[in-house]
Amino acid sequence: VTTISRASYDTIVAGAGPAGILAAYHAAERGSVLLVDAASLPRDKSCGGMIHELTRDALAPYGAIPTDIVLAPEYVNFRYVDWDRGIRKPTTLAFLNVDRAGFDAWLVSLLPDTVEVVGSTAVTGFEQDASSVRVTLKSNGAESIVECTTLVGADGARSAVRRALNVGTASSYVTLQDYVELSGELEPFFDCIYDRSIGDSFGYGYVMPKGGLAIVGSVFYPKTKHPWEKQDQLLEILRAAMPQLGKSVKREACAALYLRSPGDIVPGVGRVLLAGEAGGFMSPSSGEGISYAVRSGILAGKAIAGAADPADALSAYERATSPLRRDIVRRMRWLPFMESRAGKYLAGLTPTWIVSRITEGL
Ligand SMILES: Cc1cc2nc3c(=O)[nH]c(=O)nc-3n(C[C@H](O)[C@H](O)[C@H](O)COP(=O)(O)OP(=O)(O)OC[C@H]3O[C@@H](n4cnc5c(N)ncnc54)[C@H](O)[C@@H]3O)c2cc1C
């Protein structure tokens, strides 16, 4: 982590999550890169740390995921749980179980020294014309303007870069996660829990073992009132059946994209590219976002590095992301079924191997 050394860069990237890091990594092949994050670094993003095979495949060219960030149990399988009806459907979908902060720190460590990484610095606005983007940065209350030829907004679900582009913002789920002490082992599953008693604003909950702790999380529909009380309710319900779940040592609140329409996916405008959740790159049906952030970040960085004229980076990025965008739209089609009472009811009646097969595609 350094300080801002120049008045202009070839590329400025907002957001040091997986999308921004991979975009910076490849954009460095073109020239100077400044990667800023509003949070202090190393950052701590609220996340389940479930690494999908798509992420593992996309990251294989960058080296092996370090073993010291992998938590026990190393792999957990997704299991669909209809709590009120006592139905459990284990699937063949296996996730690598990592410490998310460690995973992000590993990605930062891959960056070449030429990328300047600066924490506690937010992009608060920008102006673009035919030849450059003037980006307003705010750190420790002080504002400065730094110029670049291309700006990448990789600043997550509530992207300020996207908001400034006036292309419409997707709304977001409210998420809460508790890190819970364990007095006994949990089964090696990523349990995704549906429960009607918590009310209609409750999308789903999840439980997974995380080293010596467990994560218990909830995903609430946008604008949910009193999510803390509802998360307490989930914990109470789960503890009654799983007495090994002890007291919570940490609770974190966050936001996750609520993608509903193809128009929610926006690769960028002019000299500004949007990657990861900022651009709407995330699985709308499973909430899996890391593989989409990694893949869109790689494509954004490569589009910048490969464009003969920086003004052409966006069209190259649009072409390159077209299969990813089609994949997200395909997943959106499952949502009305998955979220309906009839859909959840039918899932409970469907043979486990079919649920498993469908889950592989969500
Ligand atoms: C509770 C929860 C659990 C999840 N669990 C999983 C999981 O198990 N597996 C999975 O694959 N996905 C999961 N996801 C989704 C996954 O965490 C995200 O999709 C992924 O991190 C998105 O990466 P990103 O690079 O697009 O953005 P982020 O990782 O969100 O990074 C964006 C960064 O931008 C910074 N920023 C924000 N505003 C500004 C600004 N104005 N200027 C500069 N920087 C700014 C933020 O500080 C942040 O560091 C989960 C999400 C949530 C909320």
Structural class: alpha/beta
Count of DSSP-assigned helices: 10
* Broad shape: globular
* Rg measurement, Å: 21 Å
How many β strands by DSSP? Answer: 16
Bound molecules: flavin-adenine dinucleotide
Percent helix: 25-40%
Instruction: Classify the beta-strand content into a percent band.
Output: 25-35%
Low-confidence runs of at least 5 consecutive residues: none
Spatial separation of the terminal alpha carbons: 37 Å
Could you spell the SSE succession in H and E letters?
A: EHEEHEEHEEEEHEEEEHEEEHHHHH
Biggest sheet architecture: 8 strands, mixed
The overall average pLDDT, rounded, is 96
Explain this structure to me?
With 362 residues, the protein is α/β, with parallel strands linked by helices. The chain is built from ten helices and 16 strands. The longest helix has 20 residues, at 313-332. Bound molecules: flavin-adenine dinucleotide (FAD). Flavin-adenine dinucleotide binds next to helix 1, strand 7, strand 10, strand 14 and helix 6.
Give a short summary of the structure.
The protein is of the alpha/beta class. Helix content is 30%, strand content 34%.
